[in-house]
Amino acid sequence: MNLSPLALLVLELLAEREMHPYEMRQLLARRGRDRRIRVTPGSLYRSVERLAEDGLAEVVETSREGRRPERTVYAITGAGREAFAYRLREMLAKPVDEFPQYPVALVCMHALGKQDALDQLARRRVELEAEIARSQTTGPREVFMVDLDYSQAIRRAELSWTTQLIEDLTSGRLGWPERAAQ
């Protein structure tokens, strides 16, 4: 089963203890997991429901307190634990093509014209430098925050690569098509 990143995070939480989706959303935000994927109430509830439909999670309790909406508490199943571990191992071990926006912008930048593209790349370089400076971590590190280290490494690599691209375009080492916008 190909679990989505959100489904994986839900199963991670349910592996800790039984909980309802509202509590899951709060915990994901408190732990900063929402900086990795977009978590909306609708997407979270759909993901939990799909996990239940697929037999990876199950309803353990439904209750209502006063006028509050009904609250459904879920637990992970044995199949859910197996699917979680399998998908997690797969995601850690196998590189996949992801589709970030920057490469798409790079293949289209010639449509702006060389100087405009250089101006935008310079702005990106400044933004990357600021993000790197803001994200410097101090103090003891824990495995729960290793994604921040990864983000820092990716940002530093992107900054280095973008700086080199600017230099290559400015010096002429990288050609600019004559028919492209000037």
From TrEMBL:
- Per the database record, which ranges form the Transcription regulator PadR N-terminal domain? 10-85
Q: Which residues form a coiled coil?
A: 111-138
| Key words of the record | Coiled coil, DNA-binding
GO terms (molecular function) for this protein are:
DNA binding
- What is the superkingdom listed in this entry's lineage? Bacteria
Q: Which InterPro entries does the record associate with it?
A: Tscrpt_reg_PadR_N, WH-like_DNA-bd_sf, WH_DNA-bd_sf
The answer to whether UniProt assigns keyword DNA-binding to this entry is yes
Q: Could you identify this protein by its name?
A: DNA-binding PadR family transcriptional regulator
Q: Which organism is it from?
A: Kibdelosporangium banguiense
